[in-house]
Amino acid sequence: MNITIVGAGSWGTALGAHLSLSGHRACLLSRTRAAAEQINLHRENRRYLPGIELPETITTTSEPALAFAGAEVVIMAVPSGALRDVMKAVTDWLPPIALLVSAVKGLEDLTGKRMSEVVLESCPNLRDRFSVISGPNLAFEVARRMPGAAVSASFSPKTAELTQKLFMTDFFRVYTSSDVIGVELSGAMKNVVAIGAGISDGLGFGDNSKAALMTRGLAEIRRLGISMGADGNTFLGLAGVGDLMATGASRLSRNYRVGFGLAHGTSLERVLKDLGQVAEGVPTSMAIHLLASRFKVEMPIVAAIHSVLYEGVPVEEAIKHLLVRPPRSESDL
Fold first, then answer.
1. In 3D, which of 317, 251, 255 has the Cα closest to residue 282?
2. Over the stretch 60-97, which tens digit does the pLDDT of each residue have?
3. Catalytic residues
4. Is 175 helix (H, G, I), strand (E, B) or coil?
5. Residue 7 · residue 83 · CB < 8 Å
6. pLDDT at 331
7. N or C: which end of the chain has fewer CB within 10 A?
8. Alpha-helix runs per DSSP H in the chain
9. Which pTM does this prediction carry?
10. In a shared domain, residues 143 and 100
11. Which residues span the domain enclosing 163?
């Protein structure tokens, strides 16, 4: 199939490399002509995915007319904060019958809207041709063909199955789901908890500490998700606990590295500059803070991380505040 991937960062490039293994032809749409030329010249995305050789079936361009020509599938792989503007820019180029897949893990920071809401506000006629792909999928591991799995969620069972077939290989399993809300919220909100996991490790705490934080963080994510109409079981699957385990335990994770840097006293501005890429958990913490207030859901761990990121609260003080909270039952929702 002819596939257009909007976004030539690490994740978009990794998806192109992955899909090429099944014989698909992928065209990456880059923001700049210079970046596109460098990827084409070196057959490698040296800035975002160094060391991964790209096959000849992958091309890169900064021209939408070239990128969308003959596209049967369009995959969005841009930062969540850019998706609305990107959708406005590419809507007129979208082929009328193409499948559109969101590989974006985030929420719109000022509105709290999920990526499907942003996409469908621009293109409401895409509802039955829209799907989400999410799971414990670190870009370097996917590009290196390491065994893994993901979830394909859609409002249409047929579309979920088409997406499943598209991404499935003999080393990468894909499961289907009808819970678009739960899959999107899982993929977005786990990034915030992963920042907390990085803080825990950065402060020299042990595995007990990180396990407790991640488990209770997952409980908060699930609590909000159910309030927003998601299936609670989704948060116990690949898109939920699976993705949280990968993102909160791996030093390949940008969100983990944000927390690790903050724990060592590095400013957020400096940490993000050193990363050179978007860490979705940073803007998403703002969106979740908004949603928790809107749906009246208590999320103390997310609130603590938000206070560190945006209110100047030292990490040690935020942790102390969490530990002195009144006791409660684990089963309380």
1. 255
2. 999 999 999 999 999 999 999 999 999 999 999 999 89
3. 190
4. strand
5. no
6. 81
7. C
8. 10-20, 33-42, 64-67, 83-90, 115-122, 139-143, 157-167, 180-202, 207-227, 243-249, 254-263, 268-275, 281-294, 300-310, 315-323
9. 0.95
10. yes
11. 2-180
